[in-house]
Design goal:
The structure holds 2 protein chains of 2 kinds. By secondary structure, chain A is mainly alpha-helical. Chain A is built from 12 helices and 2 strands. Chain B is built from 12 helices and no strands. The chains are: A mainly alpha, B mainly alpha. Chains A and B meet through α2, β1 and α9 of A and α2 and α8 of B.
């Protein structure tokens, strides 16, 4: 933990040396992610509900998934660059240092500019909180926390996959960035098979969809049991354990690039 | 004749350089396809509620979605992709500017080679998988191919300008991000431009970005008058390439001053 903070702080100071570039990165990170919100806005120029959800409700889904993802991405997202380090041989250096390679990877090149993404998601979430009834608001922090854990686990699984697919790191993007894109919309717009897949195989439905069904008092279009709406922490812990095992297996299997 | 052989060579090198990384291209195609599926469901929900929106049928909207995903590779929608970008920072651009072949045509040939390879590796998979999972419309007009090619040239012309601006700015990341932002939003990559409200739609449809994604997709669907659309693309291709030539001349003076 201490070493993570130290490494992250070092990177923040390093990137703040180039002040203009730093500010530009924060603004562009904000703007690129705002595009998705603008797209949702444009969609709602043509309809009043999408998949049975109104604009503020969809923005609530967008905001919760966005905040969870932005936090996970800021704290641990750099792990997706594992294959670059493997190919460059710099991962070997991390293995012989007295700090966990996971911590080093996560903090490596810590991008403080990602605060732009977080700010954007926080604003959308803040504006959409009007749809949350007071009596059910207690679940919001819990779902965001579970979402952070789930996205971190997905990032870690994607990185663990890169131990095998060194040349094809982009596969992981389909699950990380694909995961946040998926959960920006109500899952009721997607096909039933897809929703079952992201409920029981890669539990992205627990990032925001299941808890939001309770918070917004909506019926589950698949008719899944009601207790699933409170199962986010459970899903998060289960996925975290699996991803930790996968990461360990990856490290054990790792044999350097050999050159 | 020798010039033609040179550019053909460069085209081949561009093709071969990218074909070395087959796994990376297929991984990219996989991710593009996954995003295509997610976006398709959103569009289906929208078109089921509002059939005929933006002049598309439901099938056409789904087709549009997978086509735009298929264009990400060849049209390099997220930007960059030109090899001389890094050479500006290292200073090697000075050599490129004194070569007997102009930098513009040199990198155009390389970029067409890149696009030709990615048209196979990154465009076919999303299109085929999209067609297997959803009902998709086939290409209705023979004008699709020239339109696709012009889309690549317009994309090159734009990226050439953006890349060359780093001769003047010390940090190029801001420009590239701004470019990616404009390209994604105004090309039709985020949503079909027909869904944009009023003036925003007018601006987007007149922009060079529309010539990269929206127009070639419409040529496939047959939803735009072909000759007008091709003329529009041709206009932007020529305009951007001319601007590129002018900016190269300016860059040459600038670089000589710095390096002297």
């Amino acid at each position: 933990m201490d070493s993570y903070l130290l490494l992250a702080w070092t990177w923040v100071r390093a990137s703040a040396q180039y002040r203009t570039s730093f500010v530009v990165s924060i603004i562009s990170s904000f703007a690129i992610n705002a595009l998705d919100a603008v797209a949702i806005g444009i969609v709602f120029l043509h309809v009043t509900t999408l998949g049975g959800f109104t604009l503020p409700e969809v923005m609530f889904l967008y905001g919760t998934s966005g905040v969870s993802f932005a936090i996970a991405d800021m704290l641990f997202g750099n792990i997706e660059r594992l294959s670059q380090h493997i190919r460059a041989g710099t991962f070997d250096t991390m293995l012989i240092r007295p700090v966990s390679p996971f911590v080093q990877m996560a903090a490596d090149g810590f991008g403080a500019h990602r605060i732009g993404r977080l700010a954007q998601a926080v604003i959308v979430l803040g504006l959409s909180l009007q749809v949350v009834p007071w009596s059910r608001a207690w679940l919001v922090p819990l779902m965001i926390l579970s979402g952070v854990v789930i996205f971190t686990a997905v990032f870690t699984l994607g990185a663990a996959l890169q131990f095998v697919l060194v040349d094809a790191p982009e596969i992981a993007n389909a699950f990380t960035y694909g995961g946040v894109t998926l959960t920006q919309y109500p899952l009721s717009v997607y096909g039933d098979q897809l929703v079952r897949g992201v409920t029981f195989i890669i539990p992205l439905a627990f990032v925001n969809w299941q808890p939001a069904l309770y918070i917004l008092d909506q019926p589950d279009p698949l008719g899944l049991p009601e207790w699933l709406r409170f199962a986010s922490p459970l899903a998060a812990v289960a996925l975290a354990v699996i991803s930790a095992l996968a990461w360990r297996a990856g490290i054990r299997r790792y044999r350097s690039t050999g050159s | 004749m020798t010039a033609f052989v040179l550019y053909l060579r460069l085209f081949q090198y561009g093709f071969r350089r990218h074909s070395t990384y087959l796994a990376a291209a297929l991984a990219g195609a996989f991710t593009n396809t996954v995003f295509g599926i997610l976006r398709a469901y959103v569009l289906i929900a929208l078109w089921e509620a509002r059939p005929g929106l933006a002049g598309y049928t439901l099938t056409q909207a789904v087709t549009f979605c997978f086509l735009t995903q298929a264009f990400i590779g060849p049209m390099q929608v997220f930007g960059r992709g030109l090899s001389f970008g890094d050479r500006i920072r290292s200073g090697d651009i000075a050599f490129d500017l004194v070569r007997p072949a102009p930098l513009l045509l040199w990198s155009l040939s390389e970029d067409l080679g890149r696009a030709a390879y990615l048209a196979f590796a990154r465009s076919l998979p999303p299109t085929l998988i999209g067609a297997a999972l959803f009902t998709m419309a086939g290409p209705v007009s023979p004008w699709f191919l020239p339109s696709f090619l012009l889309g690549i040239v317009v994309s090159f012309g734009w990226r050439y300008l953006v890349t060359l601006t780093s001769c003047w700015t010390s940090d190029d990341r801001g420009m590239h991000t701004l470019s990616a932002l404009l390209t994604m939003f105004f090309s039709g990559m985020v949503l079909p431009l027909g869904l944009f409200p009023g003036w925003l739609r007018t601006v987007a449809e007149a922009s060079p970005f529309a010539a990269m994604v929206q127009v070639p997709a419409d040529m496939w669907l047959g939803t735009q008058p072909p000759l007008q659309a091709l003329a529009f693309q041709l206009f932007w291709a020529i305009a951007l390439l001319c601007l590129g030539a002018l900016l190269t001349a300016a860059a040459r003076r600038k670089v000589v001053v710095q390096g002297g």
